[in-house]
Amino acid sequence: MSLLHDKLAKIIPPLREETRNLVKANASLVISEVTVAQAFGGMRGVKGLVCDTSLVEPDKGLIIRGYPILDIQDRLPEDIFWLLVAGELPTEEESADLRKDLAERKGVPQYVWDVLHAMPEDSHPMCMFDTAILAMERESEFRRRYSEGMKKTEYWEPMLEDSLNLIAKLPEIAAGVYRIRYKKGDRNASNPGLDMGADYVAMLGIGDRTGEFANLMRLYLTLHSDHEGGNVSANTCHTVGSALSDAYYAVSAGLNGLAGPLHGLANQECLKFVLSLQEKFGGVPSDEALKEFAWETLNSGQVIPGYGHAVLRVPDPRYVAFREFGLRVCGDDPVFQIVDKLFNVVPGVLKEHGKAKNPWPNVDAGSGSLLYHFGLREFDYYTVLFSVSRALGMLSQLIVNRALGTAITRPKSVTTDWVKAQTEKAQAGA
Ligand code: CMX
Which of 50, 214, 247, 260 is the most buried (most CB within 10 A)? Predict the structure, then answer.
């Protein structure tokens, strides 16, 4: 058994006990209420879910198990997975053990490649990636053990198995999607001696003379790993998993949500926006020209991609981390320069426009320009990178939820007539 398994086996029973007692002692304590605006507005701000892997503070951004993301941005993505699921950063020995375990699980079944090759040539890379994960569902240890009649308290163990198998294989699938979809030639085999970020870059086959692309990939995988439990992808994964659907079903479903332009697809939209600026102005535009373009975008009824957030009310610290990386590695790259200039201009325009509650950049505003710099220029592929990373968070949440025996999700929906009746009652009582 791996050190991660042993660690979880130790911490789960007391955690389960603590959670059970907390609920029992406070079952009817009210922690949130729902307004009409929230019921019609995506349940924004309603506290009806528990997620301990990470927290997004409006004024601070992502905090993973108590660590602000900027404090742990240099850790390997594998270490972040350990932190997400076990609640503590791994020791050197634990980190090495996890990487060894993942290395032994590398290798994607041939039928997955057959499925991907059979898809239409113009399939979206996200559709290919999600399909590949779903196609692998027959590998699920959770489904096998469940059909054999495992005890509830054991659910987390095959969920951990499925999670580790998926994490080990996702970079290879993602790199395979890249090479198949964009006709880059043969796939490159996974190297068990490389960490997740370096192996992914090597399998993409774009080249990395300086080693900075591998550094960017590690940073990318770390920064995107989790963003609490209520966002579309995490919430979808959680809901599907709550029916005891296995990790292959649940993660594939969550990633289908990440493929939406208001969520993970925004990073492709972002770079498209930046490149259109470069083309229109034949280089890096002036602040004045950028301002005008931003207004044109808003006036034509479109959003400015990479700006705004459902929860954050400050510049996303993950954007800050990418910006610092860009300034260090490619400050003279015109595409990066446009991204940086947008940061000077867009928040002011959005504030003046007065609609967006958060005028600041989110994680998607800057990452694309860095990938572009290193030669990964097929921007409709960018959400696949996001997905490899976000799977770390979704899988951690699934393991924790199976460990705690979290109930099947079933909020109550109401009809518009019911809401109208409540408003009439409230008016009558006023
Ligand atoms: N450009 C223009 N208008 C924006 C805006 C932006 N970047 N961000 C928000 N708004 C608008 C909204 O569309 C909304 O308009 P309506 O009232 O006409 O519907 C209004 O401002 C209020 O929205 P909000 O409460 O500030 O934001 P939401 O919580 O509804 O939505 C988000 C959040 C991210 C979907 C939104 O800011 C947006 O569309 N941003 C651009 C796309 C983007 O960058 N998405 C990536 C988010 C990160 C991720 O989840 O992966």
Answer: 247
